[in-house]
Amino acid sequence: MRTHEFLDIGRIMDEIFDAAEDFRSQLKSSVGYSPRGKGFNLGDIRDFYPAYSFPPSNIYMKADKTLVFEFALAGFSEDDISLEFKGEYMFLTVEGAERLQPSEEVKYFKKRLKFTNVNGQRYYVPEDKFDRERTRATFKNGILRVNVPPREEVAGQPGVKVKIEKDVSKGGASASGSSKEKDAGSKEGGS
Length: 191
Known about the structure:
Blueprint: H1 9-30, E1 32-33, E2 40-41, E3 57-61, E4 67-72, E5 81-86, E6 89-94, E7 118-124, E8 136-140, E9 143-148, H2 179-188
Antiparallel strand pairs: 1-2, 3-4, 4-9, 5-6, 6-7, 8-9
């Protein structure tokens, strides 16, 4: 007996239209028009972090200014995960997806879970604003939660003062240099 697989086109179209309507309502509620009617008003919507498709993540800041990263890593263990700070970034690496893949004989009816290795995804964590030494990461129920607390004092880089020199030549600098530079050159040349 031959089996036929049929697609439910009506259900698929309903899902597409529902997704489009959801997108429209989310866009309308989060992005309004500017008061003058020109362009969009994005308000406080800013994306300082890349939109990696895997792992699914939440990134937010608590009231005490602690930066929190949450990564959904179902199926992985603590030994599969590596976190490190380099420069202004936190790097996430996850290995071991191969052992989570089912055998090739499997026939899926629905496949939504992703088991993918992650190789050095970077997330912006300014070194001068967050205390990396006190960072804590926990892995529970497939969720990696990384808490990066703020520094007690913001470590600002020392400023560099730029000296502004007075232009003493008349009419600005010429192609051959200012008269002061010429004088200094002739003194050094030993006249």
